[in-house]
Amino acid sequence: MPHPGYRRLYTALRTLRPVGAPGSSVEVVRASVGAAVGLGLTGLTFFVVSAHVDAALYLVAPFGATAVLLFAAPSSPLAQPWPVVVGNTSAALVGITVTPLMASSIARVCVAVAVTVAVMLTLRAVHPPAGAVAMTVALAPEAGHSFGFLFALVPVAVGTLLLVIVAAIYGRITRHHYPLRQFESAPAAVERIGLTESELHDILARYEQSLNLGVADLARLVGAAEIQAAGHRTEPIVAGDIMSTDLVTVRPTASVNELVDLFHRHEFTCLPVVHPADRLAGVVFQIHLLVRLRESSIKGRLDTLFRRGNARERSAVCAADIMDVGSPTASVRTPVAALLPLLAASDCDAVPILDDDIIVGIVTQTDLIAALARHTVSESQVSITESFQDARQAHCLS
């Protein structure tokens, strides 16, 4: 039996291992490119506005730490616009105020960072890089003396705001939610977890996690845990068991008229768009087609009003122009529990099922509801049978 001291050492060493799931290669590239784009556009803006003065003078070092949070952890409460902008700006103000009061650089750093922490907690604007902002000002008193309190505005407040704006635009382009979605905008399926927003706030406060996790994120995690637990109570079902295999697909060159005809004939809500050999290119959702037809109608009326455009140009729109290339997909071995949150989103009516990029089926909301209903009925029948057997045994014993 191992000595207790060895067990304690092993436990201590385990705390040094990496925490959290490893990032995918796509996420690594997305975050690193985003940080480069954010800092680059911020520096370029300062370069243009400051009459081509060296922009590096305005890119203070803590901006690098802010960029890490904005682009690598955009869902963190510490990376949201209020704590980022207010945290950095208040830290600069604290540093500028404290610096002239003390001759010792060590004392300036300690007091500036300590006061910054207190101010951020009071303003509910905790942003770790703000501590580095206060420290930077305390270690460079000449900069604070030259710029004065203007330093808190330019470059700190303006530079931070530019980073936030770039992060929001970049998040939309790369299909990430930034700023963090509020509880009211969380998917309806997640809101049905039976807990109110105030109760979720209380849970975060009770376990001192309010700085690490948002209310909407907690709601989604609880909902996902319930779905996973529900999957344990039934036989494991995978997408291949419930998917529709009688597919109707279109090529990227399919015209709007062809799409309308197929939607009308089959009463589908979506149509997979495939390349040769059935490789998935995207999905045309009915709602996207309706929006495009409405836009074309408005454009047509404007073209008529201003006597421009022609019917050939308006009829040139095809499936490739309308299809969604970022809709979620799954494999035949994907558990149904993993499909539930995807199909619960209001903008997703179906999930294509792929086998090495080749579409082999599709799971719609109707398929999922039917599968869950069948398993619910099966479980009820099993429960009734077990109860009947228990009653018979009890009767025989009596």
From TrEMBL:
Alphabetical keyword list: CBS domain, Membrane, Transmembrane, Transmembrane helix
Stated name of the protein: CBS domain-containing membrane protein
Pfam families with a match to the protein in the record: CBS, TM_HPP
TM region(s), chain numbering: 28-49, 56-76, 82-102, 109-127, 147-171
Native organism: Williamsia limnetica
Domain CBS: 243-304, 323-379
Gene3D superfamilies on file: CBS-domain (3.10.580.10)
